[in-house]
């Protein structure tokens, strides 16, 4: 597996983790959790969005590199 493929897998896994944690934190806040949870959720969702843009930049930069 190439460095490009491993990088893409880790970025996608990080995006999914950040978005899932952000959704969980916001849900917990809305269910009456501490005020800190909204900040955790917002930060995590922002990080997930940033990772999406980072993935797009990586794929654009490495478009000529094979996955093998």
User: Using DSSP, what is the number of strands?
Assistant: 0
Whole-number tally of structural domains: 1
Distance between the termini: 5 Å
Helix residue percentage: over 70%
In short:
The chain has 68 residues and is mainly α. It contains 2 helices and no strands.
Describe the structure.
The chain is mainly alpha-helical. It has one domain. α1 runs antiparallel to α2. The longest helix is centred in the first third of the chain and has 28 residues.
Write the layout of secondary structure elements.
Layout: H1 3-30, H2 36-61
Helix pairs in contact: 1-2
Keywords:
single chain; 68 residues; mainly alpha; 2 helices; 0% strand
């Amino acid at each position: 597996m190439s460095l490009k493929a491993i990088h893409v897998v880790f970025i996608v896994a990080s995006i999914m983790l950040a978005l899932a944690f952000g959704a969980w934190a916001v849900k917990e806040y809305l269910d009456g959790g501490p005020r800190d949870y909204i900040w955790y959720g917002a930060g995590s969702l922002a990080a997930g969005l940033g990772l999406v843009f980072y993935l797009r930049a990586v794929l654009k930069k490495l478009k000529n590199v094979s996955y093998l």
